[in-house]
Amino acid sequence: MTQEIGGFAALGLHPNILAALTAVGYEEPSPIQAQAIPVILAGQDMIGQAQTGTGKTAAFALPLLSKIDPAKREPQALILAPTRELALQVATAFETYSKQMPGLNVVAVYGGAPMGPQLKAIRQGAQVIVATPGRLVDHLRRDEKVLSTIQYLVLDEADEMLKLGFMDDLEVIFQAMPESRQSVLFSATLPHSIRAIAEKHLRNPQHIKIASKTQTVTAIEQAHLMVHADQKHAAVLRLLEVEEFDALIAFVRTKQATLDLASALEAKGYKAAALNGDIAQNQRERVIESLKDGRLDIVVATDVAARGLDVPRITHVMNVDMPYDPESYVHRIGRTGRAGRTGRALLLVTPRERRMLQVIERVTGQKVGEVKLPNGQQVLDARIKKLTTSLAPLVADAEASHGELLDRLTADIGCSPRALAAALLRKATNGQALTLAEVEREQPLVPNGAPRERSERSERGDSRERRAPMPLGEGRARCRTALGARDGIAAKNLLGAILNEGGLAREAIGRIQVRESFSLVELPEDGLERLLSKLKDTRVGGKPLKLRRYRED
Predict the structure, then answer these.
(1) Which of 313, 349, 478, 491 could tie 512 with a disulfide, CB 3.0–4.6 Å?
(2) Residue 96 falls within a domain, yes or no?
(3) What value does the mean pLDDT take over residues 490-497?
């Protein structure tokens, strides 16, 4: 099926949805959006074969929001996602696209968070539920009518859901919804198990297949920094101390964030300005001219405000807030590395955004390496280097022009030239910390990155089957399952199942070792029996997990 792409307005979306798209800077639909949106708007069931990173979230969110009635205070759309991270990402997208729809509410339902507030939001009439299957089944056990008003169902990344062992849960969920619903299934691959679901639960689905295009940004050096959300400003200020940039554009998500960050940068002495959708066109032009001619060095912008911005002296792009999709990331960092020059792109990543980082790497076909926050010594060296660079040109003829004044001042004050030079330096540097002890005292406590993701490497091999397990982390217990490499199990499958069903934070799970005929998982010792009880019915790849404490004797 081909569809002439003539902008989102041509696809028949609700005017309020189009207004929200304009606000986030979307202009043209991606191929999956152009093909899927009319099909979903028409009420047809659909199978979308597309990789993450092709814009598939908007492909189902935009038409569903156009069909939902905000005046009806009851659940109307259910989106099932395999992991908590994806559920949160999809829920955020729905909230963004529905900003111009008063009365529309979205609830994310996943393990690891209290059930009470989730159930309350559903009962109060949230029209959109984004859920992981395991937690949704828990809600159905409490209230079997939870899904009785659902008109639209989306299975996002269906192949991943089956790999994580959610087949049984999906069957329970299907039974709890009206048969008259519209169903949409997205999957990167279509193995037999997915086809079986489609045949059983979808009605004459239309099949849309989109090849994922790799977007390359080879002229741009890319790096990311792990940081907690509330410490982004401190991290930006620290990074700017050591980055040697000519001009820089910093991207944030909201208009208010442009003002806040520009203000923080100005307070630190940077020549910075905000650029957002509220700024008049003549003021926008002045900001861009100032960036071009050097009166400004940093512009803090939203995606929509930066549209069409082309300033050759931009050497750096800093993604302070993660973009909504990989295409936005490619557009953002394309502001540097122009006309054969090299550029540098920095991306701040919060713990919840690791998944989007992986998607960006897959779509661009490039690794975005990790950098650490500069330490006190690096900051001090950078400050002294800047000072040296600014003073060096002044030294050449300073003695000829100001030598006599120096002699008079040292005589009048009664001090040595060294003491006077030190006093003038103090004045020139405006009290800036220029010793290591002072720098370390003033630096905010921003960690060198958020907790690292647990290794998901599988360790397998017949000859190594009997080797001793690795040393156990403090406060952890080692548990064993009879599922191993021969069952087609990888560490990520076990990790996903335990996260979704056990309600744990990712950091709570230690090392996962996958052997040929079994696997070992490190879990918190505290509350272990309760956790194992919660996991007793969990299935991975359609097979029972049956985790139990592993005793080494």
Answers:
(1) 491
(2) yes
(3) 84
Measured at the alpha carbon of residue 154, what is the angle toward residues 152 and 158, in degrees to the nearest 5?
Answer: 155
Q: Sort 368 into a burial class: Cβ within 10 Å, 0-12 / 13-18 / 19+.
A: buried
> Alpha-carbon distance 412 to 420, whole Å?
11
Residue 49 is assigned to a structural domain of this protein: yes
Residue 5 has pLDDT above 60, yes or no: no
CB neighbourhood size of 370 (10 A) = 15
DSSP string, 446-511: --SSSPPPPP------STTTTSPPPPPPTTEEEEEES--GGGT--HHHHHHHHHHHH---GGG---
Could you tell me where the DSSP H helices lie in 243-315? Answer: 255-267, 281-293
Mean of pLDDT values over 78-99: 90
- Domain count of the chain? 4
The answer to whether residue 32 is domain-embedded is yes
Instruction: Note whether 144 and 124 are same-domain residues.
Output: yes
Spell out the residues 6+ positions from residue 497 whose beta carbon is closer than 8 angstroms to its own.
164, 165, 535, 538, 539, 540, 545
Q: Which residue(s) pair with 298 in the sheet?
A: 248, 272
- Which tokens belong to 447? 């960690």
Separation of alpha carbons 45 and 154, rounded Å: 10
pLDDT of residue 379: 76
Instruction: Give pLDDT tens digits for 242-289.
Output: 888 989 999 998 888 899 999 999 988 899 999 987 888 788 888 989
Say what angle helices 31-41 and 56-67 make with each other, to 10 degrees. Answer: 30
Q: Are 175 and 298 in a shared domain?
A: no
Domain extent for 417: 377-442
Q: What is the pLDDT of residue 147?
A: 93
Give the separation between CA 274 and CA 285, rounded to whole angstroms: 12
DSSP label at 25? T
Q: What is the mean pLDDT of the chain?
A: 83
Asked if 495 and 512 count as a contact pair (C-beta separation under 8 A), the reply is yes
CATH number of the domain enclosing 541 = 3.30.70.330
pLDDT digits 0-9 by tens, 460-474: 333 333 344 556 667
Residues 255, 272 share a domain: yes
Q: Copy the structure tokens of residue 309.
A: 């911005």
Distance CA 349, CA 223 (A): 10
Q: Which two tokens stand for residue 485?
A: 């490499």
Using one digit for the tens of pLDDT, what is the confidence trace for 323-334?
A: 877 778 888 888
Question: Is 314 a domain residue?
Answer: yes
Instruction: Indicate the burial class of 260 (C-beta count within 10 angstroms; 0-12, 13-18, 19 or more).
Output: middle
Q: Are residues 308 and 275 in the same domain?
A: yes
Q: Is the dihedral of CA 84, 361, 61, 350 positive or negative?
A: positive
Please give the structure tokens belonging to residue 283: 């003021």
The β-bridge partners of 349 are: 226
